[in-house]
Amino acid sequence: MTLGMSAKIKNRHRLKSKEIKQLIQTLKNRFSSDFFDSSSSVEMGNLEEFKIILVDNDIAFMIIEDDIVFTLRGLYKYRPKEYFVIVDMGAVGFVTKGADVMAPGIVDADECIQEHDYVWVCDEKHKKPLAVGIALITGEEMKGKKTGKAIKNIHFVGDRLWNLSAI
Fold first, then answer.
1. CA distances from 51 to 43, 63, 70, 85, 93 (A)
2. Does the predicted model carry a pTM greater than 0.70?
3. Residues 90 and 157 in one domain
4. In whole angstroms, what is the distance from residue 116 CA to residue 61 CA?
5. Rg of the Cα atoms in the chain
6. If you count Cβ atoms within 10 Å of the first and of the last residue's Cβ in the chain, which end, N or C, has fewer?
7. 159 and 115 inside one domain
8. pLDDT band for position 106 (cuts 50, 70, 90)
9. What's the total number of domains in the chain?
């Protein structure tokens, strides 16, 4: 991975074996999957205002208020099966420009999503990750609601973090 010349990861340090195992367990508890193992190179650092976790030199996760959240690069690499929201193709252009996700554009959602959970948004045709956001309503409500906002967009294709972590 190459980061732009102006982007430098500060306070970058490799996690100890015990810290890696804790991270793996935290992710397994939330997503019921293993995304990497203790032999992976796992580092933490700051990239501008983002606190990030690199796995084998890919910016796979960010830390927001002590929560570990997938970055879009991490979603592309690991493809979690939980906390997804699928939007229709008409919503894609808006979501990838940073717009919050409106309920009418949602065609499916993981029913285990609770209000305030971090979720990832993908398109219905290719299932490609488009954004990461905070659920404003439950997954069940997303599937049935026809008006209003459902997800606050916090990281999307083309935003600063996406561009800073470009390969």
1. 11, 5, 12, 24, 27
2. yes
3. yes
4. 18
5. 16
6. C
7. yes
8. very high
9. 2
- Predicted confidence band of residue 2 (pLDDT cuts 50, 70, 90): very low
CA 7 to chain centroid: 20
Residue 2: inside a domain, yes or no?
A: no
The half-sphere exposure of 76 on its side-chain side, counting CA atoms within 13 A, is 14
**Cβ atoms of 106 and 85 closer than 8 Å:** yes
Same domain, 150 and 120: yes
Final residue of a structural domain among 47, 77, 107: 77
pLDDT of residue 116: 97
For tokens 């990838």, what's the residue? 96
> Count of alpha carbons within 13 Å of 64, Cβ hemisphere only?
14
Looking at 26, 44, 77, the residue that finishes a domain is 77
- How many angstroms separate the CA atoms of 89 and 122, rounded? 10
DSSP three-state, residue 11: strand
